[in-house]
Amino acid sequence: MSECYSDPNNSRRLAIALNASIDELVFEERERKPEGELLMLFEGVCRLDQKEQQLIKELIESVMLKHDAKRYFKQDGAANLGG
Q1: CA angle 45-46-52, nearest 5°?
Q2: What angle do CA 53, 54, 57 make, to 5 degrees?
Q3: Helix axis angle, 50-82 relative to 36-45, nearest 10°?
């Protein structure tokens, strides 16, 4: 493997030198950003105080965990039915 990829600090230094985020260097312009209504909501969250932002973060994380659990148990249930 190239030394360039073995040290994550190289990516960090490159991003700093180019005044860009690592996401900007790696992903397409809209690849990692929410669209439409979600983008507006996320921008609004920036105006909330720290405690409210933490609550929003916890809510999103809990919904994502619920989604992952449903997907996992759906796959697990299908595997159990098949064999």
Answers
A1: 55
A2: 90
A3: 140
Which tens digit of pLDDT belongs to each residue from 14-67? Answer: 888 888 888 778 887 777 677 788 888 988 999 999 999 999 999 999 999 999
- Give the separation between CA 12 and CA 22, rounded to whole angstroms: 7
The 10 Å CB-count burial string (b at 16+, else e) for 43-56 is: eeeeeeeeeeeeee
Q: What pTM was estimated for this model as a whole?
A: 0.52
Q: Is the dihedral of CA 68, 45, 31, 1 positive or negative?
A: negative
| CA separation for the pair 75, 6 (Å, rounded) | 35
- What are the helix (H) ranges across 1-83? 3-6, 8-17, 22-26, 36-45, 50-82
